[in-house]
Amino acid sequence: MTSDVLASKTAQMSIEENIIFVDEAAGSDESGLGTKSAPYKTPLAAVAAIAGMPEEKQASFKIHVKKAGDEEYGEITATALKKTKKAHENAVKKAKKQAEQTAKDKSANDAKAAEEQQRIDESKGVVLTEDPSLPKAKTIRISESVENRNTRVRVSGWVSSLRVQGKSMMFVVLRDGTGFLQCVLTDKLCHTYDAATLTQESTIAINGEIKEVPQGKNAPDGHELVADFWEVIGKAPGGDDDAYGSRFNVDSDPSVLYHQRHLVIRGETASSVLKVRARVLRAFRDHFDGVGYTEVTPPAMVQTQVEGGSTLFSLNYYGENAYLTQSSQLYLETCLPALGGVYTTAESFRAENSHTRRHLSEYTHCEAEVPFIDFEELLTRTEAMIKDVVNRVWAEPTTRAMIQKLNPDFKPITEPFVRMRYADAITWLNEHGIKRQEDGKDFEFGDDIPEAPERKMTDAINKPILLTNFPGPIKAFYMPATKEDPRVTESFDLLMPGVGEIVGGSMRIFNYDHLMAAFKREGLDPAPYYWYLDQCKYGACPHGGFGLGIERFVAWLTNRYTVRDCCLYPRFPGRCLP
User: Which residues are CB-contacts of 317 (< 8 A; sequence separation ≥ 6)?
Assistant: First the structure.
């Protein structure tokens, strides 16, 4: 509270005894009046109130203080009064100094604003024209800059960042999706109205020569474009509210970042993750092409379920009940007699009200099915696929550089994956003191191991784990029991450190009677699955397959905290925008 406010309040109080009261327990410096019924809380407020009175009255006032725990007021001691007056003097000096600095800053800012406005006004008269004597500029993408050094080029893109140095030099870092290019604008190029009002994320085109930067200087790819002409194509908003940099920052809440995802992906980190993802998708296709699998595109609108009815998104399909697909697996199995090994990379949907960092309601599902294999071969092929895809991605220098920046500790896998049975995982959890969350007891055979304990185990072992032979009741209906132990199935999950499960797979039941029994056990009507059951009638064969979540694979590769950062526009409970 200021001295003026305190003095005003003091004028309202009864001063018949010329005493200002301070109650350190029950008083208030904000609402107090210094009276016995409305005392101040601190002696400093009382001293400030007296200092605000006419000088001839100040000496006649005394300060009475009631300390916490006391019942009566007593006059403030000389020592305490002296100390309080000193504190008040210091506060007054500090306030005066702050006011002087505020006035000084305002004067400087006003002068700077006036100078800037003068510069803008003068810039309106500066017009750029391209020098007709120069060679015709070759239009290139930024990724083609190295091979076009010392050539006059034209590059278009978005202003990723800009820096003004003095009155006659600007540095603009341009981004076009293929890379970043530092551009140097000098003299008249910096004096135009467009230069004076240029904003981040504006689109511009720049002509000039690409030169290597001098030794000791840094720039993307070690060169910069020395501009001789430029123009604005589309100017982005400036100002405090609508400027690109005002919409979000690195410390923004995740909900803000997801709502502004269309702008977030322009950043170097987000765009790098998306580029790695694109290379990963290509690597999977190249792998499957290399081993002779055929790509197919199954339907996304279906009338059957694969992973349980509780996670189905329903829709009205011309008056019939239908769903968004949970998995393309059953359709892939129908392709085996016609095409042999097949795969698909398509969207799958799970209406699972899960808010964990590894779940999405819509995700990119890489699935494959292979005929005439056994369980051991399925495991071997899955491990080989992961290693081959990683090696293909790592072999491309641009992608490798992005991964090294996003995940500096990443190295391609060379060691064999750990093989661990479900029963052994239960033993490992209990031996390491990891308990069931719901009751704090040891895990038992038949428990579905939740994400957190599974990740603790995976991170502790710190190697890829092929976790196999899950009990039938906790896995899907189509997974066959093992010959050695009918309690468990020929099934597996691939667990990766830092992420957890990224692949789930199994052999598939191909005996008609066994499959019908599985339908009955799950309470499923076999009628809508007639086309699937026909596979058991018309030339059944042993076969197996798997599904891999691309977002989880990318999260592991790039060390992202959540799979939500590993797709273009994540969909999860509460988020269906943009």
Answer: 301, 303
